[in-house]
Design a protein that fits this description.
This protein has about 425 residues and is of the alpha+beta class. Helices cover about 15% and strands about 35% of the residues. The longest helix has 18 residues, at about 360-375.
């Protein structure tokens, strides 16, 4: 059964303007959108969207696996996992483990050192406090405070005071950063709460996200971070049973992820995709007009209290070609407007394939062939149109090559 479609298509606006993230590209590059009511909160929203992109979610970015090294090419970094429910685990190169836990049904709050073949030993108060502080600063480096802002005020051209529920206040300073490709963007320079100060020295630019690379974590000094994954669902014993955990680096037997698998390019695979709600409009047909439509409809969703939830995709149905923008609630429950066409995708078993073969149209043609052949071999059939998601954002309009795209093709399937 195909997903329900509500309303009528809206003609995309042809106005140029700020990107969906609310940060203008180039020139006054990285400068926030023009002054407006509630601008500081809008800037915080823009920074989260630009830094985390499709990873953006307090839950996903709270359940992470990262490595932390003392130099960029550290051959033996610490492997650190953190849970959004509270809890941090550090796996050291010598196979010892530190665990910090909040109070839970299976353990008291505290911190322990574990060594294979030996009993867990509780850390003394100063050592436990150091681990807690490291956990707090790592979460801040992943911008956790920005997800909880109750009020934001401007203190300078690029300096903001962020007040969290409960009254804690963080000072956010932004500066213009020029990635290897593309125009400059406004990214965090520092984030500070009392003595806890994180300085962002360099970023790892993926084209879709800007994630911290070299950071200064207060008195701990300079460190190199690498986010290896987010949105994890941790095995119940990973944090809550510190007295009998497995040792070594996080492995699939203890760390599970809700993200779809990423098979090698050109190799189809089966996965189950979560439900999604999308704003749909007619495909303008050319990349300049698509980018204009991304801008216009992104602002439209932002005005309704929504934010981007995944890569936009194109699909063909009833002989017509459409673009769909997945979104989720940011500050207001969604209420569809009369002129909007809304697509609601249920949780679906889906065949996927990643392609880097050329233009969007070339990837669509090859993806359709590969996925239909793959589905047939699995005894499955298509139950909806194929979707093609190019790995681009509105900010990439001046830098991307339309003939060398990376595209994720998806085909919903059933028996």
């Amino acid at each position: 059964m195909r997903p329900a479609v509500e309303g009528q298509p809206e003609k995309p606006s042809r106005k140029s303007g700020s990107t969906r993230a609310g940060i203008t590209p180039g020139g006054g590059a990285g400068v926030p959108a023009p002054p407006a009511e509630g601008l500081p909160t809008a800037v915080v929203d823009a920074v989260l969207q630009r830094c985390h992109g499709i990873l953006r979610s307090a839950e996903k970015m709270g359940n992470v696996h990262l490595t932390l090294g003392t130099r960029a090419d550290d051959p033996e970094p610490q492997h650190i996992t953190m849970s959004s429910a509270g809890g941090m685990r550090i796996n050291y190169p010598d196979h010892s483990v530190d665990v910090c836990l909040p109070k839970g049904p299976r353990a008291e709050s505290g911190a322990w050192r574990l060594v294979a073949g030996d009993a867990a030993k509780p850390h003394d108060a100063p050592a436990a406090a150091r681990l807690r502080r490291l956990e707090a600063m790592l979460r801040a480096a992943l911008l956790a405070p920005l997800y909880r802002v109750a009020k934001a005020t401007r203190q300078g051209p690029n300096v903001f005071a962020l007040v969290l529920p409960g009254g804690a206040t963080w000072r956010l300073e932004l500066h213009s950063v020029t990635p290897p490709k593309g125009p400059a963007v406004l990214l965090p320079k520092s984030l500070q709460n009392g003595a806890d100060r994180i300085e962002f020295v360099t970023y790892r630019h993926t084209g879709i996200t800007h994630l911290p690379d070299e950071v200064v974590l207060g008195e701990l000094g300079k460190r190199w971070m690498f986010l290896r994954g987010s949105g994890f669902v941790f095995h119940e014993r990973w944090f809550s049973d510190p007295f009998a955990p497995e040792h070594g680096k996080p492995g699939k037997e203890l760390v599970q992820t809700d993200a779809p698998p990423v098979p090698p390019d050109g190799t189809p695979a089966l996965t189950t995709l979560a439900p999604a709600t999308c704003l749909v409009f007619d495909d303008p047909g050319t990349w300049p007009l698509r980018f204009d439509a991304f801008d216009a409809h992104g602002r439209e969703l932002g005005d309704l209290g929504q934010q981007a939830a995944d890569l936009d995709f194109v699909f063909t149905e009833g002989g017509k070609r459409y673009v769909a923008m997945p979104f989720r609630m940011f500050s207001l429950p969604f209420v569809a407007q009369p002129q909007q066409k809304i697509l609601r995708l249920p949780q679906q078993r889906t065949a996927i394939v990643f392609l880097t073969t050329g233009s969007l149209e070339e990837c669509e043609r090859r993806g359709a062939t590969l996925l239909r052949e793959f589905a047939a071999k699995q005894g499955l059939k298509a139950i909806g149109p194929m979707r093609a998601r190019p790995y681009i954002q509105a900010e990439d309009r001046s830098t991307f090559d339309p003939e060398k795209l990376r595209v994720r093709c998806e085909l919903p399937v059933g028996s």
